[in-house]
Amino acid sequence: MTTPQSPQPAASPSHEPTAQPFLSLHTTVVLLTALVIGLVIGGLTYLTGVSVATAVIAGLTSAGASTPVLRSLIR
Prior knowledge:
By secondary structure, the protein is mainly α. It contains 2 helices and no strands.
């Protein structure tokens, strides 16, 4: 003997909210571009023969200074 099974809905609607990303795409692109600029400037500064600390400071300064400019340029 078989027992009749009640039909189940094919797709039940999910009431879970979708997870928001940690960073928006705009923020990610700006920060990654600033990171690349900082690495390039820091590397070029190091290749001029100055100390590593000076090259790191130059890279951090250029990354920090480029962030607001990139924020307004990249839309």
